[in-house]
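Quick note —
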Amino acid sequence: MKYYLIGFMLLAASCSDGKKEQPVDSKLSPGMVNNPYTADGIDSSAASAKPVLSFKDTLHNFGAIHEGETVQHDFEFTNTGKTPLIITSATGSCGCTVPEYPHDPIAPGKSGIMKVTFNSAGKSGRMFKTVILHANTVRNAHMLYIESEVLKKK
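Predicted structure written out below.
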């Protein structure tokens, strides 16, 4: 019986889903995603060469809105580092908070927009939502915050 189980596991592991691998984006080079952390700690020269994600603000208050309204805010940022900035993902704390981010590298000194849309359908009361984004910066996770007071429909 155990031989059947081992055989099944090997067969399952060797099967492919039939999908072809997506080609690596030619805009990305290994140097853009270089990790400055080593077994001995952090390589300060590699860390100082990383991009730096600098937001104009990280909190936006929409104020009072009515249930069912959809509002959005553009969080402005600049790459104040020395190498291209790559945002690899952005996720809202729930399905009502949807971030949109630039997928192309942001050159040093250039700016970009992180658009965050909040849908208040089915919500009421004070709302505080977050967006977490990951980038090729030394501190790779960054947080953005939105808040509002959702008033019940009339």
